Q: What sequence folds into this?
């Protein structure tokens, strides 16, 4: 069973930075794609970013390109999302997820004040 443990998040002013972490366990091999999606009240779920454990190739939603950076530490089975130049519209609950499957961790709140 895949388990994903997210940490990070919080309250920050617009223009600030936060880093999210996601520790993964239970994958049966070293080939997986982990990342984050977010959901704000009244809005549809949005895929934010994913990264391949094999070659580190990243995916970013257009709304976060140039501001967010995803990275991974395969030795720790941990994925990080560095979020810079945060905007109020980035406010949402962020979920760590298996980008190719159904597993997801508990959400972590990110709130950006204007």
A:
């Amino acid at each position: 069973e895949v388990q994903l443990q997210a940490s990070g998040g919080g309250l920050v002013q617009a223009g600030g930075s936060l880093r999210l972490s996601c520790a993964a366990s239970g994958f049966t091999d070293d080939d997986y794609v982990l990342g984050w999606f977010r959901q704000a009240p009244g809005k549809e779920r949005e895929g934010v970013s994913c990264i391949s454990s094999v070659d580190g190739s990243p995916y970013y939603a257009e709304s976060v390109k140039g501001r967010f950076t995803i990275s991974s530490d395969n030795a720790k089975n941990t994925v990080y999302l560095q979020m810079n130049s945060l905007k109020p519209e980035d406010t949402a609950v962020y979920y760590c997820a298996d980008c190719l499957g159904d597993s997801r961790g508990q959400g972590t709140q990110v709130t950006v004040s204007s």
Remarks:
- The first strand starts at residue 3 and ends at 8.
- The CA atoms of residues 1 and 65 lie 32 Å apart.
